[in-house]
Amino acid sequence: MNRLQIEKLMNPYLDHLQPYPFAKLDQLFSDLAPAAAKTRIALSIGEPQHESPAFVVQAISDNLHRVANYPSSAGLPELRSTIALWLKRRYGLPDIDPDTQVLPVSGTREALFSFAQAVVPADRTALVMSPNPFYQIYEGAALLAGATPHFINCTDESALLPDFSSVTAEQWQQCQLLYLCNPGNPTGALMSLDQFRHIIQLAQEHDFVIASDECYSEIYFDEKSPPPGLLEACVAMDNNDYRNCVVFHSLSKRSNLPGLRSGFVAGDAQILRGFLQYRTYHGCAMPIHHQLGSIAAWSDEHHVQANRQQYRDKFAAVLAELDGHLPVMLPEAGFYLWPETPVSDTEFARQLYAGENVIVLPGRFLARKSGGINPGENRVRMALVATIDDCVEAAQRIVQRLEKG
Ligand SMILES: Cc1ncc(COP(=O)(O)O)c(C=O)c1O
């Protein structure tokens, strides 16, 4: 069978999917060789590198025999109630029903992607909105659901948050689903409770669903002020059944368990009922030993505080190196730096790769042109996930490169 025939057999929406940012990066570096004398330090991938908590790994291995059982799509009642308790503690929610308002998922990536299929009717005039720059799954979810992505720019002028004032009433009317990312990847910016409230009012007025991706919510710098969340904002405006709203959380970043594939969705019971029905067919129920490990993880905050301390130390050390050399600030939350670059973002990434064997991600690969600009241009994303020594070494090499001009 030749290529054309294979393509003809496939869903034409697949053609609209963009290569992933890391594929674009490989292409960008394809004519370069990295500085051979220097070890490779990758700040490009947002994969947590801190150690997974031993007690969670133990809980998983103690329950490996549960591979003998099929897991259910709704997950174990004990897992759902542990998550509901966590949400109440974390966000001060007066009530959340573990049976109807909480659903375990196999990591937020698959859930964010499949959610659009469950929510959005296949109709190209339907808009699925997201911040710009953004986590690329939102775009793929919109396209494969048969809808049209609409990107809302996050620039300095809007404090790196989506500029909702740029969206017209007609566009809100066409909106079926709005993805939020709070804390933002890559910006690290946080929406306030008031900003959440404003968007919830718009969702109710124009009848769309808000999917708030809060998978970085537990990586923050001031122990006394954790990032606010969408469900917390619902309660603050007496939307106690979380109408139109769902949040996505994950153990990947909070607990350094990216391989566990464990997260949850919580909020509006009506939406979750439909999503659960969808998931029964989707067939991605979490293995029972992973659910039991997840119960252990959601029940403990000590390891999460220790994790935050590691990021705090790393950000302080790296920012001390970069200070005065690169316009960069401590983000409000999350584990990314999002500095402006002295030359174009792609050129800066090439220089660092060829000259220093340090890999950063050009911001333009994380954003699309919208309103005449690509808001990722002339910025790079640097994930401080490697060891503190590697992160500091990368910062020193970046400074050396900048000094060479
Ligand atoms: C903004 C954002 N959302 C979701 C995810 C997916 O995380 P996971 O599927 O591990 O929960 C990531 C992963 O990097 C992310 O950056």
Structure description:
This protein is α/β, with parallel strands linked by helices and 405 residues long. It has helices at 3-9, 21-28, 54-62, 77-91, 108-119, 137-144, 169-174, 193-206, 230-236, 251-254, 269-282, 288-298, 302-322, 345-356, 388-404; strands at residues 41-42, 102-105, 127-132, 148-153, 175-181, 209-213, 245-250, 263-267, 336-337, 358-359, 361-362, 380-383. The chain has two domains: 10-51 and 303-404, Aspartate Aminotransferase, domain 1 (Alpha-Beta Complex), CATH 3.90.1150.10; 54-300, Type I PLP-dependent aspartate aminotransferase-like (Major domain) (Aspartate Aminotransferase, domain 2), CATH 3.40.640. It has 15 helices and twelve strands. The longest helix has 21 residues, at 302-322. The protein starts with a helix and ends with a helix. The model has no long low-confidence stretch (mean pLDDT 96).
Name its key features.
405 residues, alpha/beta, Aspartate Aminotransferase, domain 2, seven-stranded mixed β-sheet, three-stranded antiparallel β-sheet, 15 helices, binds pyridoxal-5'-phosphate
Shape: globular
Report how far the terminal alpha carbons are from each other: 52 Å
**What number of structural domains do the residues give?**
2
Q: Strand arrangement, largest sheet?
A: 2-8-7-6-5-3-4
Order of helices and strands: HHEHHEHEHEHEHEHEHEHHHEHEEEH
Main pleated-sheet profile: 7 strands, mixed
- Please state the structural category: alpha/beta
Rg from alpha-carbon coordinates: 21 Å
Architecture (CATH level 2) name of the largest domain: 3-Layer(aba) Sandwich
* Unreliable residue runs: none
Overall mean pLDDT stands at 96
Query: Count of helical segments?
Result: 15
